[in-house]
Design brief:
It is built from 20 helices and 25 strands. With 646 residues, the chain is an alpha+beta fold.
């Protein structure tokens, strides 16, 4: 039986109901309230912000700052919807540099909680004023209230008048976890502000202000752990009006979840698809399958070329030139990761434009060393090669493994080997089945290359090498696999990322693709991009494309899905690396089969040749599958292990 519904007329929503609906967009849980209140405190020019919580924020959220404060006459307006002091015209909106500007947060929060706002614009504490709202539509009343210069916002009993919303809150532990994550993002956005976080009257975080490098690293270490800094590269790159700085984790220091990824645009934390895609591309073929990189990165650019008003919570942004930003992020991070080399530079070495330094407190992480030593283990390519190039060349390595020499015949005359006075001996005539050991030449250890000199081969799998700091263990197959892979990429792709030398072949029968009109427009606009990637496309109709030529290495690939994927990437991000990624997968497989296999006996010169090659090869800290290729134990760690000096 049909149900008759009453015809309803269009009407204006009750202001209280409108605010509660708006609260559904900006107030999801206590963490959302904290974000809005703390951003207002930051915009007020605060130097110290204190946050108190009870019951994970469901019972109480108090944010106190020492900022400019709110004048008595403006206090009632502060709780009104669409009331703000941060923008006054469209021009202000197009170049907004404040965190909060919509003027709806306090009104929305007050509609679903018991809110009290106390503020003072004077240095005299007795000049403060209070305004209170309790989730109902009424004229806010202002009354005197002592308060030092600044503001305090107290939010009690969140969702007390909206039971349907309150029942969706999780346990106190879960809600506090969300609050603490929001706190991390806030404090990482402003190093010049001191922060205090208390939960149930207990201090959880107390962070001093300081925007000098050492103070910033202390804060990052306090929030993300020292292990993050000890396995991270510092980057600081400027180009085309953009600046990217911060810390990116080494590929070997990754996580099972994307829970340590912080990206800020002009001080605002964002979660952006374009940014995520650029970072994912930069870590391609150096990250273990299913793992996620870690980073704390800051992008600075003209506020007029980025729109922050595209999402109610302001977590997303839109760049005026997305392709420029994407390429800048990708190229900067890609080069920083590629230029990492093992190095013995002292901790006083300056960090260059593309990379910094890191260590590792656990020897399980390849491509890094012990944290107990203060010296950095990694540097950019220029610094890494500099020390080695300054040492005079000695006698050439004469013995090469047949497979290694076949793969790199041109490299024999380029290898720098131990100095003449080291008098490296030949391999002993006899050795045990499992361990092939050799005497270490007498030499000044401080003159050793970054990965030192080989002293033994263990079980036909690992190379043991003595360095100036201690012992390095190298997985010879994984290391040679990366060396072979990088050389094959260079031969196929040529210099840089362009596939200019890629061999292509015409299809005997052109492949017809059914696409949308938008994809046809993208194909026409990006014709040169496809051509550079070795793909020839023709428009055969308003919704049809013809594929006439593809790279030879993609002969057996699913070209149709590859082209569709490229069109989607070009439309969303202005860039696509699917062709190159697919070719690199084939090269990685080829290099894996063409590399040194386990249980192959190597002589000392052969092992040293591999070590020197690692020092010159991009991304040599990981194999093609993202696994570490080497690890180091310092003398301090070894002494501690054997209780020496205790």
């Amino acid at each position: 039986m049909a149900v008759m519904t009453e015809s309803r007329r269009i009407h204006i929503l009750d202001p209280r109901l409108a605010n509660q609906i708006a609260a559904g967009e900006v107030v999801e849980r206590p963490a959302s309230v904290l974000k809005e209140l703390a951003e207002n405190a930051i915009d007020a020019g605060s130097q110290r912000i204190e946050i108190d919580l009870e019951a994970g924020g469901a019972r109480l959220i108090r944010v106190r700052d020492d900022g400019r404060g709110i004048a008595e006459d403006d206090l009632p307006l502060a709780l009104s919807r669409h009331a703000t002091s941060k923008i006054a015209s469209l021009d202000d909106l197009e170049g907004v540099d404040s965190l909060g500007f919509r003027g709806e947060a306090l009104a929305s929060i007050s509609s679903v909680s018991r809110l009290e706002l106390v503020s003072n614009t004077q240095d005299e504490p007795s000049e403060g004023w209070r305004v209170v709202a309790e989730g109902r539509q009424m004229e806010p009343r202002v009354s005197p209230a002592p308060h030092p210069r600044g503001s305090s916002v107290v939010v009690r009993d969140l969702f007390f008048n909206t039971p349907a919303r309150r029942k969706f809150l999780r346990t106190e532990k879960t809600e506090f976890g969300h609050v603490e994550e929001t706190f991390r993002r806030l404090v990482l956005s402003r190093y010049d502000i001191a922060w205090v976080l208390r939960h149930n009257q207990k201090v959880v975080h107390q962070l001093r202000a300081g925007d000098e490098p050492a103070a910033m690293e202390r804060r990052v270490g306090a929030l993300l752990g020292r292990n993050f800094l000890e396995n991270a590269l510092h980057v600081d790159i400027e180009a085309t009006g953009l600046r990217l700085w911060g810390w990116v984790g080494l590929p070997t220091h990754s996580r099972a979840q994307a829970d340590q990824q912080y990206f800020f645009v002009n001080g605002r934390v964002v979660r952006d698809r374009l940014v995520a895609h650029a970072v994912r591309q930069a870590y391609r073929d150096v990250l273990f399958h299913g793992r996620h990189p870690v980073f704390v990165l800051y992008l600075e650019l003209d506020p007029h070329v980025v729109d922050v008003n595209v999402h109610p919570t302001k977590h997303e942004v839109r760049f005026r030139d997305g392709r420029l930003v994407h390429d800048f992020l990708f190229s900067s991070l890609h080069r920083a990761l590629a230029d990492v080399r093992p190095n013995e530079a002292s901790s006083s070495d300056a960090v260059t434009a593309s990379a910094g330094s890191a260590g590792d407190e656990t020897p399980a992480s390849g491509a890094s060393a012990a944290a107990v030593d203060a010296q950095p283990r990694w540097q950019q390519q220029g610094m890494a090669l500099g020390a080695d190039q300054e040492r005079p060349a000695a006698h050439r390595v004469r013995e090469f493994m047949a497979g290694y020499q076949a793969l790199h015949p041109e490299h024999e005359e380029q290898l720098l080997t131990p100095q003449p006075q080291r008098n490296e001996p030949e391999a002993p005539a006899t050795h045990t089945p499992d361990v092939q050991a050799h005497a270490m030449p007498e030499a000044d250890a401080t003159q050793a290359p970054p990965l030192g000199y080989a002293v033994a081969q263990l079980h036909g799998v690992y190379i043991l090498s003595q360095t100036a700091r201690g012992l390095v263990v190298v997985d010879m197959h994984a290391a040679h696999e990366r060396i072979t892979y990088e050389r094959m990429k260079q031969q196929v792709h040529g210099d840089g990322q362009a596939l200019g030398r890629l061999q292509t072949q015409p299809l005997l029968v052109p492949m017809s693709l059914a696409v949308s009109t938008r994809e046809v427009e993208t194909a026409e606009r990006e014709h040169e991009t496809f051509e550079r990637l070795g793909v020839e496309l023709d428009v055969a109709g308003p919704e049809t494309l013809l594929v006439r030529r593809v790279p030879v290495l993609l002969d057996n690939a699913d070209v149709e899905s590859l082209i569709h994927g490229m069109l989607g990437d070009l439309e969303r991000f202005g860039r696509s690396d699917r062709v190159e990624a697919h070719i690199n997968e084939l090269l990685a497989s080829m290099s894996c089969h063409g590399s040194v296999r386990a249980n192959r006996r190597l002589t000392v010169p052969e092992m040293n040749a591999l070590l020197r090659d690692m020092e010159r090869t991009e991304r040599s800290g990981q194999c093609n599958h993202g696994r570490p290729t080497w690890t180091e134990m310092s003398m301090h760690e070894l002494d501690k292990l054997f209780l020496r000096g205790q």
